[in-house]
Write a structure and sequence with these properties.
274 residues; six-stranded parallel beta sheet; 8 helices; 10 strands
């Protein structure tokens, strides 16, 4: 038994924009999904940061929207849910511009933007659109510099930044964003080991492991009439036992809106205090 309850927040990620009504109705249908998730009590609304569709979902030419334009649109039709990418490819945008993009989303949404970021992996879309795609070691170097730049800009430090890959003479950021720090992991049999690795990194850097918000990717399928919600609650309770604060992922048939309403009425209250 846990000594104290953990509130587990639920987030929906929208990875596929091939909705039944087609591109002509995509804006209206996406707005309906955003509103339904917001009203149902979802803590997060996330999108992928890809320009081509990824193989696990469909062919490259399947519908895909640019991430931050989509989040800005969703910000205008919601009022509560946090807005983020899972996750931004670090080589897709210059770090100073990325910091401004996330800041803009944060300010205009009333402090609801999160920056989810990784080293990027989709070489096909990068080459296809002419985005430089360096080897993996350099991408991680650029990721570290991007994080340094964003954090510097978000704390109001305008001193020049001199990195190996990026140089900024005056990293000015006005108005300011709020920020915290989190870690998102994919589920699997090695999930506990990944948390141990995170704890070791925190110890090595002198960071408080407990201050890191821990989120886990999760596939939500409540069933046509909610018959699978009990199983989902049990799985989410297992994540809570491991110390996860949120589960964010795709919802089956999200364009129908009903699955969001089922999760909002049956799952979110059940996992509010595990």
């Amino acid at each position: 038994m846990r000594a104290e309850a953990i509130t587990v927040q639920i987030g929906v990620q929208i990875p596929d924009y091939t909705f039944p009504n087609g591109p002509a109705r995509l804006g209206a249908d996406l707005a309906a999904v955003g509103r339904a998730a917001d009203e149902a009590g979802f803590g997060f609304i996330a999108v992928m940061d890809h320009f081509f569709q990824i193989p696990v979902i469909g062919p490259p030419d399947r519908e895909m929207l640019e991430a931050y334009s989509t989040l800005a649109y969703l910000a205008g039709v919601t009022s509560r849910a946090k807005l983020l990418t899972l996750v931004t490819g670090t080589v897709y945008r210059h770090p100073g511009i990325l910091a401004k993009i996330v800041t803009t989303l944060d300010v205009l949404s009333g402090g609801r933007a999160w920056l989810g970021i990784g080293a990027a992996w989709n070489e096909e879309e990068s080459r296809g659109l002419g985005i430089p795609f360096p080897p993996v070691a350099e991408r991680f170097e650029r990721l570290e510099e991007t994080l340094q730049i964003c954090l510097q800009m978000w704390r109001g430090d305008q001193t020049p930044y001199q990195g190996k890959h990026y140089q900024l003479e005056r990293p000015l950021n006005s108005p300011q964003a709020r920020y915290a720090q989190a870690c998102n992991l994919f589920p699997g049999p090695d999930l506990a080991r990944k948390l141990d690795v995170l704890r070791a990194h925190c110890d090595a850097e002198g960071r408080d492991y407990d201050e890191i918000t821990k989120t886990c990717y999760f596939i939500f399928d409540p069933g046509d009439k909610g018959e699978k919600t009990g199983e989902m609650v049990d799985q989410l309770a297992g994540l809570a036992e491991m110390g996860f604060h949120a589960a964010i992922g795709a919802v089956a048939n999200v364009w129908e809106v009903t699955p969001l309403e089922i999760i909002g009425s049956q799952v979110i209250p059940a996992v509010a205090n595990l």
